[in-house]
Design goal:
Strand content: under 5%
CATH topology of the largest domain: Tetracycline Repressor, domain 2
Number of domains: 2
Helix content: over 70%
Structural class: mainly alpha
CATH class of the largest domain: Mainly Alpha
CATH architecture of the largest domain: Orthogonal Bundle
């Protein structure tokens, strides 16, 4: 497992233990059940130490969930941007379909509506990271002529990521391989250059 912090030393080790324990609790239980008391018991780190690093339970859960999903959704450049896009979406779908992921995202979104500090952190960490991965894949596709250069990529990301979160939070329909395949197939008809053969 990668470290939750790039800084070595006791502080890094303590933070890592807390983040890993929180991520494991997220896998096994619901968002509301991941309390500071539960994390303290699971990690062996005192409540006061946890609060010293994370002012709120929500910020701790956000960091742990972001760290966990960053590892689970990493995609290597295969040379085919559209294949990489499908792989990334499949990994994201798997990540959101395991354990308490759906509960965690829905809970964070709900709490962020009433907490602007949490909303800013949510946008700056989890959402920014997801968007960065989408954009990187699409930019590689543009550079190789696999994706149209006239596209506003942020809009493409909104459409793809938004569809995933619409199912996750609103409709609660499956985020599975058939859904991802249909989403990528739909996107590809608007992504590939006009001179390319049909996907």
């Amino acid at each position: 497992m990668e470290r939750a912090s790039g800084v070595a030393g006791p502080v890094s080790e303590t933070r890592h233990r807390v983040v890993v324990a929180t991520a494991e609790l997220i896998d096994r239980t619901s968002y509301r059940s991941v309390t500071v008391d539960a994390v303290a018991r699971a990690s062996g780190v005192g409540r006061s130490t946890i609060y010293r690093h994370w002012p709120s339970r929500q910020l701790l859960v956000l960091e742990a969930f972001t760290w966990k999903t960053d590892q689970m959704t990493a995609v290597r450049d295969s040379g085919d941007a559209l294949a990489d896009l499908r792989t990334y979406l499949l990994k994201l779908a798997f990540c959101l379909d395991v354990g308490g992921a759906a509960s965690t995202v829905a809970g964070l979104v709900a709490d962020a509506v009433h907490d602007e500090d949490l909303a800013r952190s949510f946008r700056a960490t989890l959402i920014k990271g997801r968007r960065r991965e989408f954009i990187a894949i699409l930019l590689r596709g543009q550079e190789r002529g696999q994706v149209r250069r006239d596209l506003e990529l942020s809009t493409v990301v909104d459409a793809l990521y938004g569809a995933v979160h619409h199912r996750l939070v609103i409709t609660r329909q499956p985020i599975d391989e058939p859904f991802v395949s249909a989403l990528v197939a739909f996107a590809c008809h608007g992504l590939v250059p006009a001179s390319s053969p049909p996907v």
